Amino acid sequence: MKKMTKFWNAVKIPLLAILCSLVVGGVIIAVTGSNPFKAYYALLQGSGLSPKSSYASYKSMLTDFMSYVNYFTPMIFAALAVAVALRAGLFNIGVSGQMLAAGFTASIIVGYSSLNAVLAKPLVVIIGLIVGGLVGALIGFLKYRFNINEVVSSIMLNYTFQYVISFFINTFFVDPVSRQSKEISASSRLTLMDTMVGNLKMDIPLGIILALLTVVAVWFLLEKTKLGYELKAVGYSRSAAKYAGIKVGRSMVLSMMISGALAGLAGVTYYLGYVGSIQPKVLISTGFDAIAVSLLGNNNPFGIVFSTMLITLISKGSTYMKSAAGVDAEIASVITGIILLFSACNAYIKWKMERGRREKTNKTKEDK
Amino acid sequence: MDIVIIDGLSFALPLFIMAIGGIYCEKSGVTMLAVEGLQGFGAFIGAFVAVAIAGNFSGDSPVPFYIAMIMAAVGGSIFALIHALLCLKFKANQVISGVVVNILAMALTAYLTKLLNRVVFGATSDKFVLTVSSRITIPGISKIPVLGAVFTNLYPFELVIVAVAFIAWFVMYKTRFGMHLRACGDNPHAVDAAGRQVGQIRLAAIMICGALSGLGGICFAYSISANFSSSIYVGYGYLAIAALIFGNWRILPTLGACLLFGFARSGGYRLVQVLQMPSSYQDLVMILPYVLTLLLLVFFSKQNGAPRALGVIYDKGAR
Amino acid sequence: MSEYIVEMKHITKRFPGIVANDDVTIQIKKGEIFALLGENGAGKSTLMSMLFGMYEPDEGEIYIRGEKVKLESPNHATKLNIGMVHQHFKLVSNYTIAENIVMGMEPVKKVLGCIPVVDMKKANQDIRELSEKYGLAVNPTDVISDINVSTQQRVEILKMLYREAEILIFDEPTAVLTPQEIDFLLDIIKSLRDDGKTIILITHKLEEIKRIADRCAILNRGRLMDVMDVATTSTKVMANKMVGREVNFETEKEPAKPGKTILDIQHLNVYNKQDFQVVKDVSLEVHSGEIVAIAGVAGNGQVEIADAIAGLIPARSGKILLNGRDITDLSIRERTTEGISYIPEDRQNYGLVMDFTLSENLALRNYYKEPFCHKGVLDQKIFEDNSEKLIEKYDIRSGQGSKTVVRSMSGGNQQKAIIAREVEQDSSLMIFVQPTRGLDIGAIENIHKQIIAERDKGKAILLISLELDEIMNCADTIAVIYNGSIQKIAKASELTTNEVGEFMMGVKNKEKEA
Amino acid sequence: DTNAESSAAATTTAAATESGSEEPGLKIAIVSSPSGVDDGSFNQDNYNGVLKFIEENPNATVTPIREETGDSAAAVQAVADVVADYDVIVCCGFQFAGIGNLAQENPDTKFILIDSWPTIDGTEVTADQVIDNVYAAYYAEQESGFYAGMAAALSTTTGKVAVVNGIAYPSNVNYQYGFECGVKYVNGTEGMNVEVVELPSYAGTDVTGANVGGNYVGNFSDEATGKVLGNALIAEGVDILFVAAGGSGNGVFTAAKEADGVKVIGCDVDQYDDGANGDSNIVLTSGLKVMHDTVYNVLNEVKDGSFKGANVTLTAADDATGFVSEEGRCQLTAEAIEKINAAQALLKEGKIVPAANFNGVTPETFTW
Ligand SMILES: Nc1ncnc2c1ncn2[C@@H]1O[C@H](COP(=O)(O)OP(=O)(O)OP(=O)(O)O)[C@@H](O)[C@H]1O
Ligand SMILES: Nc1ncnc2c1ncn2[C@@H]1O[C@H](COP(=O)(O)OP(=O)(O)OP(=O)(O)O)[C@@H](O)[C@H]1O
Ligand SMILES: [Mg+2]
Ligand SMILES: [Mg+2]
């Protein structure tokens, strides 16, 4: 019972924020001349959460849902990456760059090799962890050793990766038809693409299993372990953490390393899972959106799962929403923005609610 | 060589004015990651107005250009109100607010550009085509070797930016408002106790940031491609933030950082041409400004520090 | 107009889990020094914060000069000529003294006949004159981050005077000052009163109240206990009213029985961040069962000695031995486990993680050890138990017990939390820096008893304090520091308060040289 | 909206409206890259074909769908999301080449793939590997380039012209080669000596790794570099620039606008509106791929049941390449227009075969 109220207290405010934004978004949709309920329902349909009226051959609600899962898996990792760094008071704005570095490295080492799946897939994950972790650690190290603000170094590295990797792709790995890097081998891909299951052809994202395990692991790490306690202490007060004997520099580097490694996983599940190749000179927005997703999820790993599912639901379903309800995809991004806007006001809503409650209890006291 | 200076300046100065906007905001204690969004939205408004009024002026008239600059500043500061509302009124996390403003600006400008093109101009296009701005060469000084290039082929906006930057510096360091603003970033309680409204000062700072970012945005729109589309402003906002942090939240060093970006960039282009590298090497040279920045920071960053109250939500009762 | 310049009627203020002020009514006459006395967390700061517009009362009314006011912000209070020197100063650290003082009311000159700019030259001049007028010497162009606390406090006072405040609130102004500085400050307060200003003084030091206050209100757990005339009330009565029991002013203790050497500092030299030598060739021994106190005026290197022992700043040269082991190059963590407890001077920045809960803070030294942590995994239950135990044992008061976020606790209770944690470490060496700063007399008595009890258990104790009384009361051996070097080490019994004071000021030493 | 009218269309109008009012019309979706169908450019041209069809068949409906990332896998996913709901899906551009497998699985839906041939399992089809429900069209870019080259050579006053491209993919090399051939043709037939300026530092490397010369920005979306390259060419004395560089081309346009007396030639669609520069306009003409006709024609085939899958390369003989010669949309002299029209007739007859990336002819070996 106590657990329930605790849970309810944690979620009621985000829920309220989401509700408000759906209402506002609905008004916008109505103003543009479409039916908001139909539009929202289409979002669910497009993400495989409710049935469509007709399906292509070999497709069903399940395949849509799998495709949705495939789509949001990288975001879970990316948001976790942001959350872990934030715990230690660091702001990892370089998630996209770390994703790219990890995805590219894994692509050229494993993706273009002829390794069999049993070797290739774990190797991809390991490379993602290592490359992302190294980049993160570098950012942490620059901060710790040279006092270089992590925001600046992340941004500089973002650009650097973007250009350098674009150079290599265009020079060595380009596919002239798609004009992006050659598609990686099926055996190295973390999503089993177009797999026949019964009468269905679906994309089975292996990454989601890893993602859910990681969510639990990160939660455990942050909330239950010595390391989590140390990161939190460093995040709140570097001086007090130092006084307590915590190695502040080491903690910062470590948290950025973990954050980077998670970003690396996001990278491999995106580039070697969801899409299978890399667009040169494009830094995907996942890393930036992840900041908002993480905060919407209250920086809590389980909260992140839900905020990820919500935010990606809107972008994933937007194609079908356009098709079925005629609402432009741009409106979908505006709604996403509004949801984030409202949830940014979490603290305020909470404060208002608490004040309201206090005034009520005061009143009842007086009545007595 | 000249071309390096000319192009470098025309890139560095808009970046600089945006960075000054960021300095205003952060010096007042409000984290500003939304420069990009403000830049984009401001430029969007400016470009829209420029196209809308262009018909009333002769084709070569510079008036729409100046009106566009003013409207870009207005547009930027209005959009900045979202950040202000979230950060000041709703006490939102300033980082998330900044990111949200960026996301929102991206979505809105992309959508509205097409919508306005369709509804207002009856055209189908995802961009506003602007008239290119004329360029000025100052007679006399432009003849000086090397240095003369600074005064050659200037965009008029470069002069505007220099003037605005000077005013911004003056206001920040010489006036009462500037003094209160900087104090807000160090200890807002002191400002409150001194009888000034922290909220109002921060609101002003955020709106100034919006105005300057919008101004920088329209200048970029003019200098890079003489048109506005939602894709032209991606990334420069974060670069401006990097520059201001590199410049340790001070105006002059930030100018240095922006010039470094500008010259490294135009120098990189020049290098490709001089060394006759194949076009694919362009991408490799483009990393020059970023790598240089990192290297320089390694040497010059030890003493840097953000304003003390940066990002801390002001609560007058806090202990 | 009523007889009272300030009236606070039936004020109630609640915070989550606690009633900080409960139906408090005080009335203050124009031109008097009105003292507020109460235990830590009694609600003194809260009450005054409401008078200064930082909080709004949940219930009750405030009248200034007979008029009912709703104080919404410090700004508003300033307009009503109310000024406040806070327990924690409100200064802009990268501004000069003059800039801080004139802020909000800057003198302005016009350049080019029309553009208004701040006239810093005039401001500097004004401040110089103001500081001379009130005898509060400051250099207007010094930057706040470079000056010591007592000067900072003078700046705060000048700020009020510059604004021509008539109602001056001082929240524990003497907590950070040396005896000489305190004398000086009290004189100033008196002369301000003689100038016709009204003064409200929060302090834990009864003799100060006795010396200058006209009336004194006593708060206990948020409730107003009594308001009395200082002239006709003895300090003993005040103390009893406040704590609710007899208070013992003199600390009783057995003579020390020093044992083996625990801490041995040899030729220690320490430089600060600006590469300025702050500790010069200091050698010092502390034995088990002994309290060694370092006496000195603030900023003479005593805190750096403590920091160097604890490992927060590096020793440039010299050696620090603990139980015979050289710890000079060990990490902070290694030193702690070797047996050092440390109550640091700056409790908000070092002693506590302000946004952690009380239970997390009380485990700050032990969280990584059994039983708190088993193979890297924390045991929440142990955290709770530990915290319940210490809260009970050390009477730490807060709104929500173990779950209270430390930031919301009163200054005194924050200090108690640190002391509880550090004393429970059971270390062979305990370093106390200003352990009773900001504490009420009841709490001070308790802590002094504890320090002595620890000594009697055979602990070596290094006590660093700016309060001579505390040093004379507790120390077995006194080392006096001046300008980074030890001037004198002697048995406490062999030194008089006066002598120590002279060594502290560097006077005695100079005579010797002459 | 310029080339949209054709006499062939007018004759079918009556028939179309008649049958249209009885049976339910075609459900058409048009899927485009991030810039959307109202980009005033490539996508728009395709869309115009659909609109024209709908105008004549009011029962038909069209839903424009925008894929937000531009990634090739995401593009295919967007098509997959809606494939069940439409009779015809128009796919604008090479990003959608990956629909091959999807099309095979959904034989009831017709696909029109513009400017690309489909891939099956990641490999591009050969001309005879026709997917029954996919009509895929490449265009003979070298022909459009050829008209542009002629226009440039006939209009230059400095005797120096240049072509700017994005990346040396076959389509871009085709444009480049065609342009060079056009200049060579004018030099030969008119006895002129117009020089095609190439900056060695921007030489392109084609998909086989061969150096093809030309001026390549190295990117399709880098306006800044486009401007630098444009300026560099103008500094060499070039006064006519043929711009086939996607978004990077905008930068070249700006460079031309800022310079005095420099004109550009647009590509793919009529870019006259982009050339507005105050009272003047810098667009000389544009080399066209007449995509709207392709879309329109194929839609009509779908309607009347004559649709057949095909992999084609459309040429002048199909009226699929051209240049802008309408009064008010170009600034060519009447004389120049006449000469180019004459050459166009020869191209249709196959008497002139401009060089293309892989047709065995190079600008050096090109003769007529
Ligand atoms: N209050 C602060 N604000 C911003 N950055 C800080 C702060 N405190 C520390 N840092 C950053 O953290 C880095 C490490 O801090 P710290 O002082 O603990 O270094 P250190 O003593 O060398 O670490 P270690 O204890 O591991 O030897 C510094 O270089 C600085 O970049
Ligand atoms: N902002 C706040 N939020 C929650 N609780 C608070 C807040 N401010 C004060 N309190 C609580 O109110 C009570 C009174 O605090 P206050 O600071 O007024 O005490 P004080 O008498 O000044 O004590 P001290 O002598 O230790 O400074 C304390 O229990 C404190 O924890
Ligand atoms: Mg207090
Ligand atoms: Mg250290």
Automatic annotation (TrEMBL), chain A:
<dbReference type="GO" id="GO:0022857">
    <property type="term" value="F:transmembrane transporter activity"/>
</dbReference>
<dbReference type="GO" id="GO:0005886">
    <property type="term" value="C:plasma membrane"/>
</dbReference>
<feature type="transmembrane region" description="Helical">
    <location>
        <begin position="204"/>
        <end position="222"/>
    </location>
</feature>
<feature type="transmembrane region" description="Helical">
    <location>
        <begin position="68"/>
        <end position="88"/>
    </location>
</feature>
<feature type="transmembrane region" description="Helical">
    <location>
        <begin position="252"/>
        <end position="273"/>
    </location>
</feature>
<feature type="transmembrane region" description="Helical">
    <location>
        <begin position="156"/>
        <end position="174"/>
    </location>
</feature>
<feature type="transmembrane region" description="Helical">
    <location>
        <begin position="100"/>
        <end position="119"/>
    </location>
</feature>
<dbReference type="Pfam" id="PF02653">
    <property type="entry name" value="BPD_transp_2"/>
</dbReference>
<protein>
    <submittedName>
        <fullName>ABC transporter permease</fullName>
    </submittedName>
</protein>
<keyword id="KW-1003">Cell membrane</keyword>
<keyword id="KW-0812">Transmembrane</keyword>
<keyword id="KW-0472">Membrane</keyword>
<dbReference type="InterPro" id="IPR001851">
    <property type="entry name" value="ABC_transp_permease"/>
</dbReference>
<feature type="transmembrane region" description="Helical">
    <location>
        <begin position="125"/>
        <end position="144"/>
    </location>
</feature>
<feature type="transmembrane region" description="Helical">
    <location>
        <begin position="331"/>
        <end position="349"/>
    </location>
</feature>
From TrEMBL, chain B:
<keyword id="KW-0472">Membrane</keyword>
<feature type="transmembrane region" description="Helical">
    <location>
        <begin position="6"/>
        <end position="25"/>
    </location>
</feature>
<dbReference type="Pfam" id="PF02653">
    <property type="entry name" value="BPD_transp_2"/>
</dbReference>
<feature type="transmembrane region" description="Helical">
    <location>
        <begin position="154"/>
        <end position="173"/>
    </location>
</feature>
<keyword id="KW-1133">Transmembrane helix</keyword>
<feature type="transmembrane region" description="Helical">
    <location>
        <begin position="236"/>
        <end position="263"/>
    </location>
</feature>
<dbReference type="GO" id="GO:0022857">
    <property type="term" value="F:transmembrane transporter activity"/>
</dbReference>
<feature type="transmembrane region" description="Helical">
    <location>
        <begin position="37"/>
        <end position="57"/>
    </location>
</feature>
<feature type="transmembrane region" description="Helical">
    <location>
        <begin position="95"/>
        <end position="113"/>
    </location>
</feature>
<feature type="transmembrane region" description="Helical">
    <location>
        <begin position="203"/>
        <end position="224"/>
    </location>
</feature>
<dbReference type="GO" id="GO:0005886">
    <property type="term" value="C:plasma membrane"/>
</dbReference>
<protein>
    <submittedName>
        <fullName>ABC transporter permease</fullName>
    </submittedName>
</protein>
<feature type="transmembrane region" description="Helical">
    <location>
        <begin position="284"/>
        <end position="301"/>
    </location>
</feature>
<feature type="transmembrane region" description="Helical">
    <location>
        <begin position="63"/>
        <end position="88"/>
    </location>
</feature>
<keyword id="KW-1003">Cell membrane</keyword>
Automatic annotation (TrEMBL), chain C:
<keyword id="KW-1003">Cell membrane</keyword>
<keyword id="KW-0472">Membrane</keyword>
<dbReference type="InterPro" id="IPR050107">
    <property type="entry name" value="ABC_carbohydrate_import_ATPase"/>
</dbReference>
<keyword id="KW-1278">Translocase</keyword>
<dbReference type="Pfam" id="PF00005">
    <property type="entry name" value="ABC_tran"/>
</dbReference>
<feature type="domain" description="ABC transporter">
    <location>
        <begin position="263"/>
        <end position="508"/>
    </location>
</feature>
<keyword id="KW-0067">ATP-binding</keyword>
<dbReference type="InterPro" id="IPR003593">
    <property type="entry name" value="AAA+_ATPase"/>
</dbReference>
<dbReference type="GO" id="GO:0016887">
    <property type="term" value="F:ATP hydrolysis activity"/>
</dbReference>
<dbReference type="GO" id="GO:0005524">
    <property type="term" value="F:ATP binding"/>
</dbReference>
<keyword id="KW-0813">Transport</keyword>
<dbReference type="InterPro" id="IPR027417">
    <property type="entry name" value="P-loop_NTPase"/>
</dbReference>
<dbReference type="InterPro" id="IPR017871">
    <property type="entry name" value="ABC_transporter-like_CS"/>
</dbReference>
<keyword id="KW-0677">Repeat</keyword>
<feature type="domain" description="ABC transporter">
    <location>
        <begin position="6"/>
        <end position="246"/>
    </location>
</feature>
